[in-house]
Specification:
Blueprint: H1 6-12, E1 15-16, E2 35-36, E3 52-57, E4 68-76, E5 86-90, H2 105-113, E6 116-120, H3 136-139, H4 144-162, E7 169-174, H5 176-187, E8 194-198, E9 205-207, H6 210-222, H7 226-240, H8 247-253, H9 265-284, H10 302-309, H11 317-331, H12 341-349, H13 361-372, E10 373-375, H14 390-401, H15 405-419, E11 429-434, E12 454-457, H16 475-492
Helix pairs in contact: 4-5, 6-9, 7-11, 13-15
């Protein structure tokens, strides 16, 4: 929902990476977001951040299975006016962050329109745990199809309980939840009046080569030499890795936790993907206003990275690449980088809800293997990185979930068959995307029909339209938020 120093942070540090996909991040899971886990449950005296629980069926598609579980949700009634709409923020592949109940563009819209606001946490993420563990037998109940049925049942039951049956419901989501918002309107049009599907990857693909191609173009938009320098650095590193005598220096250069050991192709790909992830993460979230979520504002942007890659005082491009890796560690107060693939294997084998990969990484990897693909590979020649081809990801699906490449191809094809891919036939869905965001390659960037408009925002990154407005926002971002609001106003009169 992926590379970067995420895996080692998830496993070894008090800082982890999660995706509040209801507000950011389709995913590159590895390296999605880095922040300290915080308990926001008591921040709002009016109870906005209080945990609420809703009874769901474990399997919505098997009438003979009567097992149930408790799904977490949040509610904000501060702005609600009788007769107003109901806004439903869709949770994604990470713990639902209650900060979204008080901040974000959707809250601004709610205040103006007198909306009641709900946020529903996605099954198998955060505190919404339908099963005793994360075994493969349990994970069979984790899918977008089950998640959409959760949304449908929640909307139906909540409308009946609160007298909102005749209210107009609007779904919001960003990244994977953005796709869910679009699919919710597509599959349950009688339950949701309109959807805002921000940075939504509506087309599933196994080999997502376009991701790194957009990273290249986004770096080049800052400095045409930047991706060329990154490529020189990446190529130099790959060449050095052919000689084990260089491993001591590489260990020191990249501040690894232990001496580099490259014994298999998976070891090599894991290491190279992590380092590339530093650039992938910064591009994906370039200048997004995420501090309210608990994200640390490091000030590290595309401009900063490209400035470092162009700085001869740091040495040759390889040395600059290593300097970027050290900068990222320092920015998040991480002492060293764990690049041990065998540690990752052990973490993924752990089926406990208390395991090091249970905060979302294992679940999202399962969803990519069983539904979406989305693998950000180096298979395209039109990007600056090397070393993590499609086979690297296919091996993980086979090893961790016993899902073969052939089965993955079939499930991805079924996903597009079920949700229509780019060829969506519906109404009242708006698709905001940013040109810097690599995920826009799998989204809707041109109007399909007048009732399926795209809002393509030049110079902005992942889910930028969803974050709180600030004075330094690009004018086109401000105009995009205003356009989305105008569209919603019009649809709510229909």
């Amino acid at each position: 929902m992926h590379a970067g120093i995420l895996k080692s942070l998830l496993a070894k540090q008090t800082i982890f990476l999660l995706v509040w996909l209801f507000a950011a991040g389709e995913k590159r899971f590895k390296g999605f977001e880095r922040f300290e886990e915080k308990d926001n449950s008591a921040r709002h005296p009016g109870g906005v951040f209080e945990d609420h629980w809703f009874i769901q069926k474990l399997d919505h598609f098997n009438g003979a299975d009567d097992r149930e579980w408790k799904q977490r949700y949040f509610v904000n009634e501060d702005f609600y006016r009788s007769g107003g709409p109901v806004f439903l923020m869709i949770g994604g592949e990470g713990t639902a962050n209650p900060a979204w109940m008080q901040y974000g563009t959707w809250i601004t819209y709610a205040e103006k329109l007198g909306a009641l606001c709900f946020m529903l946490e996605h099954r198998f993420y955060g505190k919404s745990r339908p099963t005793p563990d994360l075994s493969k037998e349990s994970l069979q109940f984790l899918s977008s199809r089950q998640a959409l049925a959760d949304l449908a049942h929640f909307r139906t039951a909540m409308a009946e309980a609160r007298g909102l049956t005749n209210s107009k419901w609007v779904a919001f989501g960003g990244s994977y939840p953005g796709a869910l918002a679009a699919w919710f309107r597509l599959k349950y049009p009688h339950l949701v009046h309109a959807s805002v599907a921000s940075s939504a990857p509506v087309f599933a693909t196994v080999d997502f080569t376009e991701y790194l191609e957009v990273v290249r173009s986004s770096l080049a938009s800052e400095d045409p030499q930047c991706p060329l320098l990154v490529k020189q650095a990446s190529d130099a590193l790959v060449e050095l890795l052919k000689d084990p005598k260089t491993y001591d220096n590489i260990t020191q250069d990249f501040r690894l936790c232990s001496k580099l050991q490259i014994q298999t192709d998976m070891d090599l790909s894991y290491f190279l993907e992590m380092l590339a992830g530093n650039f992938m993460d910064v591009v994906q979230y370039n200048e997004d206003n995420r501090e309210f979520e608990g994200m640390k504002d490091t000030g590290i942007t595309i401009q900063v990275l490209c400035g470092m890659m162009a700085d001869p005082s740091l040495g040759v491009p390889y040395a600059r690449y290593a300097a970027v890796a050290r900068l990222m560690l320092e920015a998040f107060s991480i002492e060293c980088l764990n690049v041990n693939f065998s540690s990752f294997q052990r973490d993924m084998a752990n089926t406990s809800w208390e395991g090091p990969s249970s905060m979302g990484e294992k679940q999202w990897l399962y969803q990519t293997c069983s539904e979406f693909g989305f693998y950000q590979t180096t298979d395209s020649p039109n990007q600056p990185f090397s070393g993590f081809p499609l086979q690297y990801f296919l091996t993980q699906c086979a090893e961790f979930f016993n899902i073969s490449a052939e089965l993955l191809d079939e499930t991805v094809e079924e996903t597009n068959e079920n949700y229509s891919g780019y060829d969506i036939h519906s109404t009242r869905i708006v698709f905001p995307n940013g040109s810097i965001d690599p995920w826009h390659a799998l989204g809707i960037t041109m109007d399909i029909t007048p009732n399926l408009p795209a809002v393509f925002i030049k110079g902005t990154a992942h889910c930028a339209d969803m974050y709180p407005a600030r004075s330094q926002d690009l004018p086109q971002l401000t105009l995009a938020r205003e356009r989305i609001f105008t569209i919603l106003q019009q649809w709510l009169t229909q």
